[in-house]
Design a protein that fits this description.
It comes from Enterococcus caccae ATCC BAA-1240. This protein is of the alpha/beta class. The protein is built from 13 helices and 12 strands.
């Protein structure tokens, strides 16, 4: 009987915490009957849960007669710990570049400061990462702004939650040629394309507009190998990998400035648009300035990456 009481009260505490974390200090607290109706709890269970939150000084309330009960103080950080069942789950590209290593390190730093556990999955392909978030398998995804806007335009249930600005995702894209004498895409070339990556696909299609080329499906991370093996003539890829791996022997040309290329360099955090509770928690945790500062230190070699 005692165990059942504790289980009921514990569940009620978690559910009420999820409601209260969405409220602002100074707002009216819902009455007990509202919680009863929404969650199918008894009045006593709701009262026990509220008593716990008050006794632990997680919330403080003041009764103001007809105006109801006002939430004067809310300890959002402690409510977060009650609400979250296990770690926050995120996904981003495999950290093969210093830019990605710095970003992953920055993410772990801000979650550690908030004392909230973070579990990251490193998944290739922006479409796969956003699918995981759309299905709510993951709480958030880090992708380029170009990929996010493309997915949203196609009807995805995601929304851009945080925008980290230009060159936070990567520095530039380049066209890499297998022939050391080539400098532009020409008719009849074999062009590597990855339809699992919005960025690579869109930039490749833009760069080949008006050209009669043969598209060869190649996973983005195999583009350089495919070029070196003569399987394709040209492919568009992240310059950061060339720079970090010191692949200066490759023949590459920077893409000319375009809106799409700028958007593809910008990191954004996307979440399911209906998850108000998660957005409230992430709003207080994900500090763009802190993440970008850590990223810069990793890129400059002033901090050892950890993720």
């Amino acid at each position: 009987m005692q165990e059942e009481f504790l289980n009921k009260t514990g569940k009620a505490i978690q559910q009420l915490s999820g409601e209260l974390i969405l409220l602002s200090e100074g707002s009216r607290m819902p009455v007990i009957s509202e919680f009863q109706e929404k969650y199918g709890m008894s009045r006593g269970t709701v009262q026990n849960a509220l008593n716990y939150l008050k006794e632990e000084k997680i919330i403080h309330t003041v009764s103001q007669g007809r105006q109801g009960t006002i939430l004067t103080t809310i300890d959002y950080q402690r409510l977060q710990k009650i609400v979250i069942d296990g770690p926050i789950r995120g996904t981003m590209p495999l950290p093969y570049s210093k830019t990605y290593e710095g970003f992953a390190t920055g993410l772990y730093e801000v979650f550690q400061c908030a004392e909230i556990p973070l579990s990251m999955a490193y998944v290739r392909g922006s479409k796969d990462r956003m699918d995981l978030t759309s299905e709510k398998t993951m709480h958030f995804s880090i992708v380029s702004k170009l990929a996010a806007l493309q997915a949203i335009a196609a009807g995805s249930e995601l929304e851009i939650f945080k925008d980290f600005g230009p060159h936070s995702y990567l520095s530039n894209h380049v066209m890499i040629f297998s022939n050391p004498k080539s400098s532009k895409i020409e008719n009849h070339m074999r062009v590597g394309i990855d339809h699992n990556s919005y960025d690579q696909q869109i930039l490749t299609e833009n760069a080949t507009t008006g050209k009669k080329v043969e598209f060869i499906e190649v996973p983005s991370h195999q583009l350089i190998y495919s070029l070196e093996q003569g399987l394709i003539d040209v492919g568009i890829w992240n310059f950061d990998e060339i720079k970090d791996r010191k692949l200066d022997h490759l023949n590459y040309q920077f893409l000319e400035g375009s809106v799409e290329d700028d958007l593809s360099s910008t990191a954004v955090c996307v979440v399911h648009k209906d998850n108000l509770l998660l957005k409230k928690i992430l709003m207080s945790v994900i500090n763009e300035t802190k993440i970008l500062s850590v990223q810069k230190q990793v890129i400059e070699g002033k901090m050892i990456p950890h993720y």
